[in-house]
Amino acid sequence: MKEIFGNIPAIEFKGAKSRDPYSFKFYDAERVILGKKMKEHLPFAMAWWHNLCADGKDMFGNGTTDKSFGAKPMTLEHAKAKVDAGFEFMQKLGIEYFCWHDVDLVPEAANINETNRLLDEVSDYILQKMNATGIKCLWGTANMFSNARYMNGAGSTNSLDVYCFAAAQIKKALDITVKLGGKGYVFWGGREGYETLWNTDVAFEQENIADLMRMAVEYGRSIGFKGDFYIEPKPKEPMKHQYDFDAATAIGFLKAHGLDKDFKLNIEANHATLAGHTFRHELRISAINGMLGSIDANQGDFLLGWDTDEFPYDVYTATECMLEVLKAGGITGGFNFDAKTRRPSNTYADMFKAYILGMDTFALGLIKAAEIVEDGRIDEFIKRRYASFDCPLGKKVRDKKSTLTELAERASKLGAPALPESGEQEYLQSIINQILFG
Ligand code: XUL
Ligand code: CO
Fold first, then answer.
1. 94 with 226, same domain?
2. For position 242, what pLDDT does the model report?
């Protein structure tokens, strides 16, 4: 078969000094870090939508990038050309996974039965490519936010017909996820939210969203889906108020509706910052609740208040992320680049350079996070910081066996406690700089 990216070579690791733009500087798939190969720490995934579909169109202008891959857009031939392009792309970069929405794979037809037929055909073709290359599906999802019918949401809609349509899309997307052996199934509640309380019954909408998830779990398990369901929290955009605001909100929602055994979270870096959190905060909140499932690896722009989905280059943030992942013992999902090239970066070559940047950034993050773990000073400091609890009364607190009366007795003997020891934030931050740049 004729190559689509014929002028671009397979990307190899050439080391930090390499000036070859088509080489990894830090991502060395086979390099062992803390007992595990880099590629096992970092199961990277290609996002079908940004990489194979998005052409740079924005609210103010037309597309800048040709993603026809030699076929007429909105045809089955084009859907298959995207499969060819995607697998060639992943093979050249050594990416082992991909993620998709139903409408990324095929153009939506006028009738859902026809859309589903197209999905069957294209997923057959994807499966052939998967078997030939060993590339795997990380997760699938249904796009329940682009079509006008979802203007009031999918689970949160006020229309029973639209609610049924959402159910049908989820059912089919789960069928395809199982067919492709996907490790996960994502709910990003794009329009699951509201604009104004003057027309909204929040309790009813939230119950219906949860029930759609319950039905998805029931159906998924009945057809043999053994992976995790994920919620991908995001506070706003497109809706003003979104129900999955952040990790803590999503975890509370899952627990309140008895969905926490089947669901974990897919944490996206740019969504974290939109919620006014750091990426690291969202990862930590998920991890300590046993719900860190997968990661959408991108970054935002602090000068812009929307979801810019940039390829990650911020090594400091990537290091924090990888430290959280190492501390959590790894993730069951992967690192999906839900990221797009900037609009003027409009060539096929830019697509490759963008992934090289993202993969190298996370590889550097992993290398530096491992150095922080091996250095040990941060861990020691945190342990020491809570050392006052290492006494019989502190142990009772840790074991949740203390009473207000006995704690008050100790306070009364003290009269007034001494100030806690310094938090030494500046010293700790200087250790991080020393490890990053020393
Ligand atoms: C949107 C977003 C989505 C999800 C999948 O902000 O992140 O692409 O990752 O629906
Ligand atoms: Co995302």
1. yes
2. 97
Which spans in 279-424 are helix H?
A: 279-288, 315-327, 348-375, 377-385, 392-398, 404-414
Report the catalytic residues. Answer: 101, 104
185, 188, 229, 295: residue to mutate for ligand 1 pocket, most atoms within 8 A of CB: 188
CA of 185 to the centre of ligand 2 (A): 12
8 within domain boundaries = no
341-355: pLDDT as tens digits = 999 999 999 999 999
User: Is the CB of 186 within 6 Å of ligand 1?
Assistant: yes
Cα–ligand 2 centroid distance for 296 (angstroms): 5
- Number of neighbouring beta carbons within 10 Å of residue 128: 12
360 shares its domain with 397? no
Query: Looking at the domain assignment, is residue 382 inside a domain?
Result: no
Neighbours of ion ligand 2 (CB under 5 A): 268, 296, 338
User: Can you give the residue range of the structural domain that contains 254?
Assistant: 28-375
CB of 296 closer than 6 A to ligand 1? yes
Report the separation in Å between the CA atom of 236 and the middle of ligand 2, taken as the mean of its atom positions: 13
Do 94 and 238 lie in one domain? The reply is yes
CA distances from 98 to 10, 144, 146 (A): 18, 19, 21
Q: Are 314 and 353 in contact (CB under 8 A)?
A: no
**Within this chain, do residues 270 and 406 fall inside the same structural domain, yes or no?**
no
Identify whether 282 is part of a domain: yes
The count of domains in the chain is 2
Percentage of the chain with pLDDT > 70? 100
pTM above 0.85, yes or no: yes
CB distance 104 to ligand 1 below 6 Å:
no
Q: Which two tokens stand for residue 365?
A: 């993050």
What stretches of 16-94 show up as alpha helix (H) in DSSP?
A: 38-41, 48, 76-93
- The reply to whether 79 and 148 lie within a common domain is yes
In a domain, 15, yes or no: no
Residues 147 and 202 in one domain: yes
The answer to whether residues 430 and 355 belong to one domain is no
Does 378 have pLDDT greater than 90?
yes
